Amino acid sequence: MRIAVSCDGLDVARRFGFAESLTVYTVENGIVTRCQNMPHPHDTPTHLLELFQSLGISMLICGLINVEEARLYCALGVEVIAGAVGPARQAMEAALTRHMLGLDEMCDDDDEVTCCTI
Question: Which of 8, 11, 55, 107 is at 20 to 30 A from 35, Cα to Cα?
Fold first, then answer.
């Protein structure tokens, strides 16, 4: 499993579209085996989705994200966990724990998504 976290420095970026970078964690059997950081490409949602698919990303963790963009990712297999704050590693570990325990949450119908599994 590969998890991307939108970041500003070592923390989750407040808004996905304005993040400085993406930190990608590779998780095998519940253990983080690799961590990579790359500049956020600031591209269209369709191109970002293609990037996520080429990298094998199945989960995106971010602060705020446009609901239509989040739904696009979710519909095409990338689970979106929005509303995250604090250190990226802690946000990833919390989301991974919820995922492994099967505690998925649903999207809100607000302008900004708080969590999304469609």
Answer: 107
